[in-house]
Give the backbone structure.
Amino acid sequence: MMNEHENLNDSPQWNSEPSLAGLVKPLRIRLTETAEGWKVELSSLSPGDAMMAFAREDLLEDSTILCGTGAKDWVACINGPVEVADADAILKEVNSAELPLVADCRMQSVITSTENEGVSAHLREYDEALLLIANALAQYVGSIMKKSVSIPDLGLVDALLEQSDLLSIKPIETEVYSTFIDIGISTSDGSVPASMAAIYDIYSDSWHCD
């Protein structure tokens, strides 16, 4: 039993692993270069949340946003106005094409839902791919902290992807301490243990690589 002089923060690590395993979902990230730009697969975020990441960075100015639902939910961002015929072509490509950006040369991004409650995002710009991944990492830590946290710098995300285009984060390899969170990252879908880490500093609300 804790006496009156002891403090939870005196402990080097919170006893959080059981709650993490039960309450925080694993995060899987894959980045692929395509003929039209980049494809990001994330096992978190919804299409709407992903597009809001761009809105917060003012990347949607002067753009038209189209969205739809059906076999999968989707959101598309197109530079400038969109005629009805253009919208029909975009709808067809989103529902059938492997590279939906070919529907319109002005289309900057198409984000669709996936069966595993994640998203598949087709993007023309590499920095937008990094921004989506940064938001997924912030959401993962936010689910631990039970509040919104800042996103990591895009340079940090780029450094992680230089080592592998597949990043797998499991709650069991995430350690929560009184002042920081150590996020183990594996480059394999399987049981290969984490080989690198990202550190989230709780007090400064900032990130760095281990």
Residues 49 and 186 are 25 Å apart (CA to CA). Residues 1-12, 14-18 have pLDDT under 50 and may be disordered.
